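Try this one yourself first.
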């Protein structure tokens, strides 16, 4: 075959020129763009790896942004809590200063003024916001968490930062946790509020004139029952159990009880305290509660079980100083009473011992009733009791303008949570009373005046076959309907607080169903009653009724078990408003309520609880200090939680930054052009191209002679 010049040209130039030009184009493109490839077709593997790394960078960017946002909130919360703790220390210092007993009234007022200023500062801190979003409102960041009354209006929802696949970190502290949180390791502690004097020392001969030679002293554990209850002569009766103490309360497990303790003159106060402990379940081998006396002779009870808010206590004592008629009027079961076992049998007694030994209004009263707990709560009906401290839970809700409020929180038996509208009453009630294991047969009494000022007495009958309520003693019984399909009168154990509150609202607004057993009439009555009044559970599980038609309501309300005050029947299954012991410490925190009580104690110049002056149910400065110590501990633990959150977010942010740098480096190695390497390759390709052109040029100059 003859070799032609065109064959040399095509072989040396045509093929190599295209190849080298493509390579030159590629390397110039890499140098110009800084990237190894422009399109997926250029290198599928490189393109796929680059896309994966780009997605990873986007995710890391989201993590960084989320973490940085969360860290700002957590860090600001940390700063606010630092100021909280500083202010708490100042508050405690002022309370301790107020408790030293050397201050004048003016000095205590000045301390109280500074404390009120700190209270305002705490509220301002609680309402701290960032960019218009409140720190402590939970997820309701546009809602001001604490109002002027110290009530929380946020929610308990946590907010989380995204830290990566299936990984989040909470970054906020809700006001529900901070101001209303719960400390599971705290033991509930309560106290009576009536100062108990040693009557033997005040009246050495137990006559009116002997008071001139007497002196004031409070009761101690080593004193006798006669020292506590007094006498009318110098004879010490060592044989007759003439002193009777009636105890009502609730154990830490939610079980309620009635207990009568009978004692002699010579028995010790310590014996009475031991008897109270036994009523709660104390034995020689197991202590359920600690029962003691403070320096004012007031009984204090500390729960040995941690984390329960159910413990409660009430006691009244009585002695009949004249049993010569064969009757013992201090014993509520004595034959002198037509109805045995009713605590109201003591209503005719005298509560002022001075009137016993020197009556100013003859004839003399020989029945002396000793009060241990007093409150401003009126009795549910004037016919029940005229003695303030006699009743436990047959008391009316407290009126404040248009609102009637109870004072007993509804707490679930199996947990320490507050009840809600959807909570079944059987989840709170003591089902060991009455018919064991059920509310069937239980009756609640509703007593008071409706919004028009008309008196009413209603009953709620819990029945497994269908619960009802009546306002005429049971002649007309209205079904309390459930919300199931088909609608029917609710089973006693399935009745909720909402259904109870619906009945309360209808009774208090005098809005009753048109018929007794028609669902449409029942629902219509509820709807109409809600126009006039509103009954709800507060944030701390207390029933509240609000009159929507008046700024100062004419209504009054009491709700209590029909067995209340009857020592011959099982104890009440539950209470709603009670003349009960004062709370000193409780697992549940109510920061601004507790702080207000502490400041009120200073404003009242009250070192210990004292029902005879100031705010009757204030726990006093000494107990306020103990409460504040608990609040400080709670705030400190919350602060530690926030610190841990911030540390976690900081670590996550640092990790994200490192991952971002690492991923960007890896991406660069995959997709970015090495300019030096590309430049060297360009030079090599240029040399190759020049060599090819030189070779082609020489081949093009050959003649026929060169082939011979």
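Now uncover the answer:
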């Amino acid at each position: 075959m003859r070799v032609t010049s065109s064959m040399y040209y095509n072989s040396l130039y045509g093929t190599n020129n295209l190849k080298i030009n493509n390579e030159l184009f590629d390397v110039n493109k890499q140098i110009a763009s800084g990237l190894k490839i422009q399109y997926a077709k250029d290198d599928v593997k490189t393109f796929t790896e680059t896309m994966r790394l780009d997605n990873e960078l986007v995710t890391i960017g989201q993590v960084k942004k989320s973490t940085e946002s969360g860290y700002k909130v957590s860090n600001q919360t940390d700063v606010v809590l630092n100021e909280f703790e500083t202010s708490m220390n100042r508050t405690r210092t002022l309370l301790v200063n107020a408790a030293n007993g050397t201050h004048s009234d003016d000095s205590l007022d000045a301390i109280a003024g500074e404390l009120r200023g700190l209270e305002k500062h705490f509220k301002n801190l609680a309402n701290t916001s960032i960019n218009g979003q409140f720190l402590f409102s939970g997820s309701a960041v546009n809602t001001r968490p604490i109002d002027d009354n110290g009530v929380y209006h946020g929610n308990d929802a946590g907010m989380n930062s995204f830290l990566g696949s299936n990984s989040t970190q909470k970054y906020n502290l809700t006001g529900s946790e901070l101001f209303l949180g719960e400390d599971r390791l705290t033991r509930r502690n309560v106290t009576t509020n009536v100062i108990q004097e040693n009557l033997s020392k005040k009246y050495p001969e137990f006559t009116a004139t002997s008071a001139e030679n007497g002196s004031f002293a409070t009761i101690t554990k080593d004193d006798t029952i006669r020292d506590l209850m007094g006498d009318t002569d110098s004879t010490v009766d060592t044989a007759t159990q003439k002193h009777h103490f009636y105890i009502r309360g609730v154990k830490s497990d939610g079980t309620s009880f009635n207990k009568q303790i009978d004692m002699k003159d010579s028995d010790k106060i310590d014996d009475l305290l031991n008897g109270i402990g036994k009523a709660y379940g104390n034995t020689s081998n197991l202590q359920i509660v600690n029962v003691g006396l403070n320096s004012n002779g007031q009984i204090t009870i500390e729960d040995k079980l941690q984390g329960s808010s159910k413990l409660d206590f009430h006691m009244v004592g009585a002695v009949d100083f004249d049993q010569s008629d064969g009757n013992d009027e201090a014993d509520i079961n004595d034959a002198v009473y037509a109805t045995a076992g009713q605590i109201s049998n003591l209503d005719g007694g005298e509560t002022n011992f001075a009137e016993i030994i020197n009556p100013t209004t003859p004839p003399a009263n020989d029945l002396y009733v000793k009060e241990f707990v007093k409150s401003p709560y009126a009795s549910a009906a004037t016919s029940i009791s005229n003695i303030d401290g006699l009743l436990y839970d047959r008391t009316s809700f407290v009126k404040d303008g248009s609102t009637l409020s109870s004072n007993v929180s509804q707490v679930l038996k199996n947990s320490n949570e507050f009840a809600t509208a959807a909570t079944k009453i059987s989840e709170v009630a003591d089902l060991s009373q009455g018919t064991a294991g059920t509310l069937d047969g239980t009756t609640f009494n509703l007593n008071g005046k409706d919004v028009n000022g008309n008196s009413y007495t209603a009953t709620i009958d819990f029945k497994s076959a269908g619960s009802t309520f009546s306002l005429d003693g049971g002649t007309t019984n209205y079904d309390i309907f459930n919300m199931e399909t088909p609608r029917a009168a609710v089973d006693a154990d399935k009745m909720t607080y909402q259904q109870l509150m619906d009945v309360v609202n209808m009774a208090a607004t005098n809005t009753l169903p048109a018929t007794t057993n028609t669902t449409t009439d029942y629902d219509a009555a509820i709807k109409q009653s809600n126009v006039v009044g509103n009954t709800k559970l507060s944030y701390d599980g207390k029933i509240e009724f609000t009159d929507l038609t008046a700024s100062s309501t004419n209504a009054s309300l009491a709700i209590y078990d029909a067995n209340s005050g009857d020592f011959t029947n099982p104890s009440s299954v539950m209470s709603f408003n009670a003349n009960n012991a004062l709370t000193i410490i409780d697992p549940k925190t109510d920061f601004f309520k507790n702080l207000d009580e502490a400041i009120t104690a200073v404003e009242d110049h009250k070192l210990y609880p004292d029902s005879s002056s100031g705010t009757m149910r204030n726990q006093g400065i000494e107990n306020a200090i103990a409460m504040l110590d608990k609040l400080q501990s709670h705030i400190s633990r919350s602060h530690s939680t926030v610190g841990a959150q911030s540390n976690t977010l900081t670590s996550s942010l640092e990790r994200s930054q490192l991952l971002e740098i690492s991923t960007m480096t890896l991406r660069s190695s995959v997709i970015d052009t090495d300019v030096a390497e590309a430049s060297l390759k360009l030079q090599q390709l240029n040399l190759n191209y020049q060599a090819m052109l030189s070779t082609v040029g020489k081949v093009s100059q050959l003649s026929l002679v060169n082939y011979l």
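Discussion: The mean pLDDT is 88. The chain has 13 helices and 21 strands.
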